[in-house]
Amino acid sequence: ANPSAAENPPSACPYHKPADAAPAEQVDPRNMMPKFSQDASKDQKQELSKDREVSTIPKTGEKDNWVYPSSQMFYHALKKKSKTVDEEDVDDVVRVHNWTNEESWRKVMEWEKMHEKTCPNPTLDRFVGLSEDLSTKGWLSSKFGRLGRPFDRHDWYVDRCGKRVRYVINV
């Protein structure tokens, strides 16, 4: 026998979250990162910088540019990904991260120059870190290249005046 629609409406969800379940982590859909705290972790041995640097990368739909995470926020992100890093190295890691992003944006702008007549000011809409997913170029490099597997991959979604364009950044 088929249950009637009144007994089992199509919008009814069979899953009910337990009352004692942990709250869902808030994730920024533009970079798929949780909002990391500026507070030190319980196991931290030294204080990390809480200063954030404003990038040169314009953010789609906003007056302001993208802002890089502080060393403290970056440390939390590394721990969340089960990456180990010495606390005294975090400031240097953040500097390299920020420099790499600036250079990547510069390269993206070289490609975007081909479209400057129709879109003089492209912006970065969002980005996604996909360190475990190799691009075709990353896979070829890991199998046959001198440099081996890329350290990281980000897919950047650039707003070219209303047209979304994806750039795959292998580092």
TrEMBL record:
Q: Where is this region: Disordered?
A: 1-63
UniProt xrefs under InterPro entries: Holocyt_c/c1_synthase (IPR000511)
Please, which domain of life does this record's source organism belong to?
A: Eukaryota
Q: Which GO terms describe its molecular function?
A: holocytochrome-c synthase activity; metal ion binding
Provide the alphabetized UniProt keywords. Answer: Heme, Iron, Lyase, Membrane, Metal-binding, Mitochondrion, Mitochondrion inner membrane
UniProt EC number: 4.4.1.17
Enzymatic reactions: holo-[cytochrome c] = apo-[cytochrome c] + heme b
Q: Where is the composition biased (Basic and acidic residues)?
A: 40-63
CC per GO annotation: mitochondrial inner membrane
Q: Where is the composition biased (Low complexity)?
A: 1-14
Mitochondrion recorded as keyword:
yes
Per UniProt, subcellular location reads as: Mitochondrion inner membrane
- Which family does the entry's similarity section mention? Belongs to the cytochrome c-type heme lyase family.
Record's function text = Lyase that catalyzes the covalent linking of the heme group to the cytochrome C apoprotein to produce the mature functional cytochrome.
Q: What is this protein called?
A: Holocytochrome c-type synthase
- What organism is listed for this UniProt entry? Oxyrrhis marina (Dinoflagellate)
